[in-house]
C-alpha cells in the first residue's frame, strides 16, 4: 500500500501514535506530528496542548489546505483528572476535527482512536448525549461533579463511549466531499499507560489480562489505523474496527451467554 498523502497524527510522540507515524512514513506518507512532547521521525512537528481551545485553533489556522487524513490518537489515561480527560479525549478531539474539515482534501479520512472501554455506550446513552453537548465554554467541572466522574476512571470510559457515538453520528456528514470517519478500538495495549488502566480497573483488568494471550503492542494497532486512513477503507463509514485480540466478542459472549 502506497500512501501518497499528507496526514496529521496526534499523540505522535509515543505508543500507538509513534508507531502509526512509523508505518505511515514507511508507506510513503508525509506526516504532521502533534503532541505536547517532541516528536521524532515526522515531516513537521507542532507542539499543541489539546486541552486548550486557543492552542487548537492556533494550530488549525497555520495549517495548509489539502490535508488527506487525520489520526486522532492523543489521549489521557483514566488516572488523569476527569476534566482533563474529557477535554483531551473528546472536546479537544472534536474541536480539532471540525476545525480541520475545511482544510481537508476531498476524499480525506478521519480515524478516531476509541477503545474497548467504550463498548457499553448503549447503557449510558443519556450521559453520552450530555457529553457530546459540551464544549470548552461549558462548565466542565460542574458536569464532572454532577455525573460523579471524579473517581474510578469513569471520565475515560464516558469519553470513549461518546467518541464511538460521535463517530457513528458523522458516518455521512461529509460524504458529499468523500470524507469518511471511522474509529479503531483496541483492548489492552502495552504502552506507557497500561499500568494506569490496571491501577484503575483492578481485578477486572487482571481478569481480562488472564483471558488474553497477551496485551496488544502498538505494532498490532497502528496498521489498522493506517488501513482506515487509506483509500482501501473508503466504504467504511462510521465503523468501529475492534483490534482487541477477541476481547469484545468474549465480553459479548459472557453478557448474552452465547
Question: Secondary-structure map with pairings?
Answer:
Layout: E1 6-10, H1 15-26, E2 30-35, E3 44-47, H2 53-62, E4 67-72, H3 82-100, E5 104-113, H4 125-132, H5 140-146, H6 154-169, E6 180-186, H7 194-201, H8 203-211, H9 218-229, E7 240-243, H10 247-256
Parallel strand pairs: 1-2, 1-4, 2-3, 4-5, 5-6, 6-7
Helix pairs in contact: 1-9, 2-3, 3-6, 4-6, 7-8
Short structural description:
With 258 residues, the chain is α/β, with parallel strands linked by helices. Helix content is 43%, strand content 16%. The longest helix is centred in the middle third of the chain and has 19 residues, at 82-100.
Write up what this structure looks like.
The longest helix is centred in the middle third of the chain and has 19 residues, at 82-100. Helix 3 (82-100) links the parallel strand 4 and strand 5 (104-113). The chain has 10 helices and 7 strands. The model has no long low-confidence stretch (mean pLDDT 94). The relative contact order is 0.15. A 7-stranded parallel sheet has the order 3-2-1-4-5-6-7, sandwiched between helices. It has one domain (6-256): NAD(P)-binding Rossmann-like Domain (Rossmann fold). Helix 7 crosses helix 8 (203-211). The protein is α/β, with parallel strands linked by helices and 258 residues long.
The H-and-E topology, N to C, reads as: EHEEHEHEHHHEHHHEH
Number of domains: 1
Please give the share of residues in helix: 40-55%
The quaternary structure here is single chain
Strand proportion, as a percent range, falls in 15-25%
Question: Low-confidence segments, ≥5 residues, pLDDT <50?
Answer: none
> Cα-atom Rg, whole angstroms?
17 Å
Q: Count the DSSP helices.
A: 10
Query: pLDDT average, as an integer?
Result: 94
Q: Return the CATH class.
A: Alpha Beta
**Which shape, going by the Cα principal axes?**
globular
Distance between the termini: 38 Å
Reported by name, the CATH topology is Rossmann fold
Largest sheet: 7 strands, parallel
CATH architecture call: 3-Layer(aba) Sandwich
Structural class: alpha/beta
Give the strand order of the largest sheet, numbering strands 1, 2, ... along the chain: 3-2-1-4-5-6-7
Mind telling me the CATH superfamily name? NAD(P)-binding Rossmann-like Domain
The tally of beta strands, per DSSP, is 7
